[in-house]
Design goal:
Shape: elongated
Number of strands: 2
Radius of gyration: 23 Å
CATH class of the largest domain: Mainly Alpha
Structural class: mainly alpha
Distance between the termini: 50 Å
Oligomer: single chain
Strand order of the largest sheet: 1-2
Helix content: 55-70%
Order of helices and strands: HHEEHHHH
Number of helices: 6
CATH architecture of the largest domain: Orthogonal Bundle
CATH topology of the largest domain: Multidrug-efflux Transporter Regulator, Chain: A, Domain 2
Number of domains: 2
Strand content: under 5%
């Protein structure tokens, strides 16, 4: 199938398909005599796999590892689990950081009158070098 058909079948746009090919996420596509890329069902399956992994927040480096593990039928599932657990730990850390940011912003917004006066605890809080989020 051509790149447009592969894009439609996988849910990944053509620009990203070319990018994934250039960084080695998917193998280099075969070419027609005219130079057009030709994709296989396997390529489309890998692209859909990548799309789902991206939705779960995996980095491209992690996705490259996951694709390699997925294609390697002799791999240990413990390798896949370790990668997923590490990713989950990083996501949990980011969630904690985001929650701390929300708490700080909530406090600053609560203390702002939001009226015509120029005094603004939000701006003062952002200017305060002691503010740690």
């Amino acid at each position: 199938m051509n790149i447009g058909e592969a894009a439609q079948a996988s849910g990944v746009n053509a620009k990203l398909i070319r990018h994934y090919e250039s960084i080695g996420i998917i193998p280099k596509a075969a070419r027609t005599e005219a130079g057009y890329r030709v994709y296989t069902e396997t390529d489309v399956n890998i692209l859909a796999f990548v799309r789902r992994a991206r939705r779960l927040g995996f980095s491209m480096k992690e996705i490259k590892k996951l694709v390699g593990l997925w294609r390697n039928r002799t791999r240990a599932s413990s390798d896949v689990k370790a990668l997923a657990l590490q990713h989950m730990k990083e996501m949990e850390q980011k969630i904690e950081e985001l929650q701390a940011m929300v708490k700080t912003l909530r406090h600053l917004a609560k203390n702002c009158h939001g009226d015509h006066r120029p005094d603004c605890p939000i701006l003062e809080g952002l200017a305060d070098s002691r503010l740690n989020t």
